[in-house]
Write a structure and sequence with these properties.
The chain has two domains: about 10-190, MFS general substrate transporter like domains (Growth Hormone, Chain: A, Up-down Bundle); about 210-380, MFS general substrate transporter like domains (Growth Hormone, Chain: A), CATH 1.20.1250.20. The chain contains 15 helices and no strands. It has helices spanning about 10-45, 50-75, 80-95, 95-100, 105-135, 140-165, 175-185, 215-240, 245-265, 265-270, 275-295, 300-310, 315-325, 330-360, 360-380.
């Protein structure tokens, strides 16, 4: 598949791209189906909201703890391609565990294992995607993340279908795990070895390098926004008088706009460069949140949330690509900025809730607006990357990177 120096030939490069895209779809599919299974698992175990939160927190903690060792594992296991394969298998296996849990204690352990396997797969496949993008010779990271978003929508629909068919809760995630495993099996032969020569060395746990701090902060604020949108967009719409059914339109508009933005994101990044995409994207998100808070009507809020989704759609892929280029290895860069990103994902929703409890839900959404403005301010101070993104189709040799 590759020459001795690791450069893909043209045809295997295309196969590697589609295989990597398939792994993103598989990861998103599993995540979406798990989201659909949370409520049935809660009902099966007769959990309170507080008890369920312990399991969800364990999943997040497991994910955070697995982030930075994942770059060490990539080196130990022989490259991003092989690690992505093994992580895909581990994720499929862990996915079936929560619905099989007989009690809260087991669910907490299952959640931690699921979060850890998801993080390992996330770092490995993003690092591998960066490697493929480098040899492709043009920005293609957004298309991989579009695969995750599409997989998430498909997984949520698949989970809803299983519930509609009356699938018993203990068996609810087994078909999903099987689909993930099949997708991974189809992709595995074509991934290639990936990054072999620049694996992470040194300490397993480390803070982001100084040259990655700005990117880490942008990712932290962006994931704070995404978490806030997932948890609070519907509640905000109910506070302005909308029914719970209509309130779901807020997050639906956000998600649909994000998928659409990622489908066209590669073309946008090639034309504008990553730095401009991050700046314009965070500015668009801020404008959408300003619209949603300044004009609290159904149409304005839904339109504002759609702007947030469209704006943020390509920010995370750009941050990952740039971090992969600037760090000692792609896996190290992605793991280090992801650690900060999870901090935003963890801290955002409770912070928004605390502000909303004291000053109202519009002020809570204002916290998300401030995060968007902070991300915009940092993005305007980003240094241009050393090389530019090519606007040309793939070439069978090393490509160029960010902005």
């Amino acid at each position: 598949m590759t020459s001795q120096n690791g450069i893909y030939a043209a045809h295997p490069l295309r196969a590697a791209r589609w295989a990597t895209f398939t792994m993103f779809v598989a990861n998103g599919f599993g995540f979406g189906a798990w989201a659909a299974a949370i409520a049935p698992v809660k009902a099966m175990l007769s959990l309170s909201a507080a008890s369920l939160s312990y399991a969800l927190l364990a999943m997040t903690i497991g994910g955070v703890l697995a982030l930075q060792p994942s770059s060490f594992l990539i080196r130990s296991l022989g490259g991003t391609g092989r690690t992505t394969r093994l992580a895909g298998i581990a994720f499929a296996a862990a996915l079936a565990l929560p619905a099989l849990s007989p009690n809260l204690a087991v669910l907490i352990v299952a959640g931690a294992l699921l979060g850890a396997s998801m993080s390992l797969m996330d770092v490995a496949m993003n690092a591998h995607a960066s490697h493929v993008e480098k040899h492709w010779g043009a920005a293609i990271m957004s298309s991989f993340h579009a695969g995750f978003s599409l997989g998430g929508l498909a997984g949520t629909g698949f989970g809803a279908l299983l519930l509609w068919l009356g699938t018993p809760t203990p068996l609810l995630l087994m078909p999903t795990a099987a689909v993930v495993l099949v997708l991974a099996a189809l992709a595995m032969p074509h991934l290639g070895p990936g990054d072999l020569h620049r694996g992470a060395g040194g300490a397993i746990f480390r803070l982001p390098e100084r040259r990655l701090l700005a990117l880490a902060c942008i990712l932290m604020f962006c994931l704070l926004i995404e978490g806030g949108m997932a948890d609070w967009s519907g509640i905000y719409l109910t506070t302005i008088g909308e029914s719970t059914a209509r309130a779901a339109s807020g997050y639906g508009a956000f998600s649909a706009a994000m998928v659409s933005g990622r489908l066209f994101g590669d073309t946008v990044v090639r034309r504008l460069g990553r730095k401009r995409v991050v700046a314009f994207g965070t500015a668009m998100a801020a404008a959408g949140l300003l619209l949603a808070t300044a004009l609290p009507s159904f149409a304005a809020v839904v339109a504002g949330f759609a702007l947030v989704g469209a704006g943020l759609s390509n920010v995370v892929p750009c941050v990952f690509s740039t971090a992969a280029q600037r760090a000692a290895s792609p896996a190290t860069g992605i793991a280090e900025v992801s650690t900060a990103g999870f901090g935003g994902l963890l801290s955002g929703p409770p912070l928004i809730g605390a502000v909303a409890a004291h000053w109202g839900m519009r002020s809570g959404i204002g916290v998300i607006l401030l995060a968007a403005l902070a991300a915009l301010a940092i993005s305007l101070r980003l240094k241009p990357a050393e090389r530019t993104v090519s606007a040309t189709p793939p070439a069978p040799g090393p490509g160029t990177d960010a902005d």
